[in-house]
Amino acid sequence: MIALGCDHGGYELMQEVKDFLEHEGLEYQDFGCYSMESVDYPVYARKVTDAITQGVCEKGILICGSGIGISITANKVPGIRAALCTDCFCAEVTRLHNDANILALGGRVVGVGLALKIVDTFLNTPFSGEERHARRIRLIEQEED
Ligand code: RB5
Fold this sequence. Notes:
47% helix
């Protein structure tokens, strides 16, 4: 199950992402927002991070205008690794190396065609499982003394 969240800046692109997921037969849960009316992106970032940390969803896609605010918010949550991607290379590498569990996109940054390729790459690339990458992920989660 994929958790989806956006603000008004990401709303239009999210409709395209939902169409794509449906076409691919992938299940999602849409946590809003549900219109172009101005809203606060941290609210929707937290709905998606909650769904992941509570085990309701395995991965998430977050979209705001730039992708920045919504990914900054998501990355404050322990266990969340949100990757803001503007190309397929980053989408592939963040799954292989970082085991990213959220893809962040900028609805005002990438066009629909590229965005959907990024989504496809992110969802279909597994974590490499290599020890050096697993070690680095553990270090990300390590609490400061
Ligand atoms: C909303 O205008 C915009 O600030 C938001 O979508 C996002 O780009 C913030 O990082």
